[in-house]
Design brief:
Two copies of one chain form a homodimer.
Chain A: H1 2-11, E1 13-15, E2 19-21, E3 29-30, H2 32-45, E4 53-57, H3 60-69, E5 77-80, E6 92-99, E7 104-111, E8 120-128, H4 132-143, E9 147-157, H5 162-167, E10 173-179, E11 181-183, E12 186-188
Parallel strand pairs in A: 4-5, 4-8, 8-9, 9-10
Antiparallel strand pairs in A: 1-2, 6-7, 11-12
Helix pairs in contact in A: 2-3
Subcellular location (chains A, B): Cytoplasm
Keywords (chains A, B): Cytoplasm, Glycosyltransferase, Purine salvage, Transferase
InterPro entries (chains A, B): PRTase_dom (IPR000836), Pur/Pyrimidine_PRTase (IPR050118), Xanthine_PRibTrfase (IPR010079)
Chain lengths: 189, 189
Amino acid sequence: MDLLKNRIIQDGKVRDGRILKVDSFLNHQMDIVLLNEIGKEFKRRFEGEKVDKIVTIEASGIGIAAIASQYFNFVPVVFAKKAESLNIDNDLYKSSVHSYTKNKTYNVMVSKSFIKANERVIILDDFLASGCAACGLIDIVKQAGAEVVGVGIVIEKGFQGGREAINNLGVKVESLAIVDRMEEDRIYF
Amino acid sequence: MDLLKNRIIQDGKVRDGRILKVDSFLNHQMDIVLLNEIGKEFKRRFEGEKVDKIVTIEASGIGIAAIASQYFNFVPVVFAKKAESLNIDNDLYKSSVHSYTKNKTYNVMVSKSFIKANERVIILDDFLASGCAACGLIDIVKQAGAEVVGVGIVIEKGFQGGREAINNLGVKVESLAIVDRMEEDRIYF
């Protein structure tokens, strides 16, 4: 997706040679025009697939998934939560996920009411690195007896094994931009 | 907003007489058709106001704000973050907020790059109770030298003082549904 790659080149920043900051347009400040183009492109990548639901994970996936839903017949979006709070149902699907950027392991959780057996689910997220978050979401969808149509990723870091981890679960990955290599303020696709 | 009130009556659940669960359509599973109607109504409530940016807070505000932006000329959405991570800028506006549902105090943070002096900002969130989150966001917008046009809330719990707290800061509140009183499985507007 050239529009996205050009935006990453223009506004992305590399920190410590390993962290790609795109928080000016994707995951802190969000460019809603760009998010609409991203939603259209996800629809194109999954054209012809029946989709009942989009599942994502808080926080950065939510805006992407909400906008993308508009191109998938406005199917409901469910976002997995990362910490237990008083106003979440006790009846939960859970999976354990390690975050490299936050350097901690946590449970991701979805109320059992919101993914039903045999639903066809697309998983969307902003980043794919090691694949931990996506694999946790796949685990949850499978616990529900639902089917993962595929995983849609805005930016894949192609050198951290995430795609292989997801493919090993029998799930296909569609990434809109794949970063092969990063140097200080230089990004290779 | 009758569509919203009817949906709250139909699908909302009261827990322990004080927690209103609307996670089947608003803040865990999201009904994107409803979110579009909510976005249109926020636009109507702030009709005629120049708006440069929408500010919200992770996680539940993000989908609401992303969809609403489409009715405000696709202005950028900035979501305040609740915990420090490695990929957020060090140059941050911070404010301290207490969450009653999670029963803890945390910093909310916005990178200084994403709110500029003299910008006109609308703050959107899913719930207003004590007003802590909204007041924290107002504090951050004011630290940036920007102007708060108003606070837009999907569901206000009208008996927990949040509106007064915000009005005391000189900011107006537009809530799409105001709950006056709750009993087990009965909600009064």
